[in-house]
Write a structure and sequence with these properties.
Distance between the termini: 39 Å
Number of helices: 6
Radius of gyration: 17 Å
Largest sheet: 7 strands, mixed
Number of strands: 15
Length: 271
Amino acid sequence: MQDLRISLVQGDTRWHDPAGNRDYYGALLAPLAGNTDLVILPETFTSGFSNEAIDRAEGMDGPTVAWIRGQAAALGAAVTGSAQLRTPEGVFNRLLWATPDGALQTYDKRHLFRYANEHRRYAAGRERLTVEWKGWRINPQVCYDLRFPVFCRNRYDVERPGQLDFDLQIFVANWPSARAHPWRTLLRARAIENLCYVAAVNRVGVDGNDLHYAGDSAVIDFLGQPQVEIREREQVVTSAISAAALAAHRQRFPAMLDADAFELGVANADR
C-alpha cells in the first residue's frame, strides 16, 4: 500500500437534471486530472435524492455509466458516486466504481430510507462490495447505510493473518442539515470501531423538496479525527491518507483480535 490521494467533490446537485449534473460535476472534476487517485461524488449526483427521479432512471448502457467511465479514464483515477439505475430486477440507488482501465463495479444501496419512502419505489441491494485500488481495500456504502454498524463492520479473518475486510470506508450521501450531528458523529464512530479511514461526501444547497444540505464532507482517520472537513459550500478538496500510519495504529492497538466473528446475511432484503 502507498499513500492514497482522495478528492472530495462537494457540490450543489441540480434537481432532476442528469445532463446538467454531468456537465456541472465534469467541470469540477477536470482540474483533478493527474493530481488524485480517488474521486468521490455525492449520492444520486445526477438528480438529487428524489423518489420521482425513478421515472427517468437510466439503464446501465445509458449516458451516466458512460460518463463516469470516461471521467475515470480522463483523470487517471477511480471515480465513484451513486445514481438511480434501472435493471430487470428494478431501479436501484446504485453506486458506481469506475477505474481508468474501463472496469466498472457496482454496489446497490442496502438500507433504503424508509423515512422518505425510498423503500416503496426502489429495490434494495443484497451484497456488500469491497474493491481493491492501489493496494487499498475499500468498502463503499450509500448514505443511510451509515446508521447500521453491523453491515458496516470491518471483520477480521483469522485465516488471513493481519487482514481486515477493508482499510478505507466510503460514504456517499444526500444527508440533510437537520440531521447533521448524527452524520458527523456516526462517521467518526465507523472510523474508530473499524480501525480504518473514512471518506464521506455529502451535497450542499437546497433540493427540489426544499431540504437543506450543509455538506460536512470529510476524510477521517482511524482515531476519529478529521484530516479535512468541508463546511457549507461548493468545494473540491484533496487529502492523502497514510498507509504507514494505519498499519502502525493497527499494530499498536489490535482491537480486531478481540472482535466477534460473524457472517453478513441477506435476511429481510426485500422488506
